[in-house]
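dumping these here so i dont lose them again. two proteins, back to back, each one seq then structure tokens. dont judge the mess
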Amino acid sequence: MTHRLLAFFAHPDDESFGLAGSIAKLAAQRIPTTLVCATRGEVGQISHPALATAENIGAVRERELRAAAQAMKLDRLILLDYRDSGMEGTDENHDPRAFVNQPAHEVVARLAQLIRQAQPSVVVTFDPQGGYGHPDHIAIHQHAVAAFHAAADPSYMPALGQPWQASRLFYNVIPRSRIALMRDQMATLGEDPSRFDRFAERAWPDEKVHLTVDVTGQFAAKWQALMCHRTQLGDEHLFRRIDVDTVQRIMGREHFALAWPDPTPDMRLETLFDGLARGSK
């Protein structure tokens, strides 16, 4: 049995910003990867009116996600068909169709079934802050963590399949040092970098990062995946306004915190599967 990766995220583009390089690296190693995306980002921004409308943005973003999946050489993409809940504090948070308003027990059951079916050795999702506090990011974190443990429990909904205990649960995190680099770039452009203050408040402490994956060798694939999300990365986006070499310096490493099993003090891993024997769960 080979190693397998299963990742749970909320919107199209979460994967490209978060771990596109790692997925491309695993693809080169022929390690199967599956991405589960909770929504189609139906209330995300539209960088240019020629790209989408409020009525079709969900369908457009799905196409962008599928193109990004090809760029990363992702093995399998699963869309859950929930609706984007919008940014924190917006009216969309109260839409009864929004992901954040779905019954937790129903979402957890769906995710637990996917874990039992995919039988991953490693599961990845957002950290408890959802990276920067987006309600959907926090929701998929909570549901994925609950599903990770439920999937391994023989007493939990046997009809969903045989129990499966993955070997590791990781959070894909944004360390404070990355936010600092982005602030520096805003200042270099002569603009107020305070827009990153709210991100810095929720960014992950660097000393609690257990794994940093160097994806500079896969940066071309990561950049291509990012550029697939045209509705989200318009001309005003920071990454479109600085040179690609600087973007690579910011995004050429992907960061993970081990959530389960409990990490030992000062733990540092080399890969997502570091120390796991082939054939282990």
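---- next one ----
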Amino acid sequence: MVKGLYTAYTGMVEEQRRLDVMSNNLANATTAGYKKEGTTNAAFRRQLALRIRDSGNFMFARGIGDIQQGDKVGETYTDYSQGSFKVTDEKSNLAIGGDGFFAIAYTDKQGNSSVKYTRDGEFTVDSQGYFRTGNGDYLLDMNGATSGQISEANFVRVDPLQSYTVDPEGRIWQNNTAVDQVGVVDVNDTDYLAHYGENLYDLVNGGSVTRGANYQIEQGALETSNVNVVDEMVSMITIQRAYEAGAKMIQAEDETLESAVSQVGSVS
């Protein structure tokens, strides 16, 4: 009976963790370039149950079968499938079709700079012609993105007083001259990407980037989140019902345990 309480409890904890992940997805349903997360289930290792104080076999207790001790969230994964495009007609807005990430020269509150990656192409051009994110970080060009070197020379820049266009390969044209190229890189294995904020990714040890190959840049558009709100809401209802089932199981186990203590224990 106590094992039943523990099994129900671990199931409820798992559903709570799944709900947290799903709530984060829904909160970022309108965040440009956001990639939804999901969870997998993993069962605890099955254990052999033994008879207590069994003297049937000399020095060896008899086994009564394997027991399952509940389950847990195995891992949280990210779905990197492409989201749909939303046309904004803003020249500085860029969307990546296919594989790859924009490389950003990110600066934290302590003033430390590092390269981060994102699918969010909601850039603006400042008075000096630099492409910047909503937080003020600079967009790296192809040289800076592939080398990982952060310097002013590797920031994407245009003449702010002149019109410009961005072709599908990310080259920026002004007066029929290619003045720069947006840095789009691909990762050797997305398992080496770690979430950093809402829509930034950090490359952990073992990961490496290469020059993007299978991509096209769409100017004047943004990639929306790949979260399907209807699917997430349906899954949320399923999680809620599973959580309620766990709570009812704990209540039933508690009533059974109470009966065992009050009735069976009172037999003389």
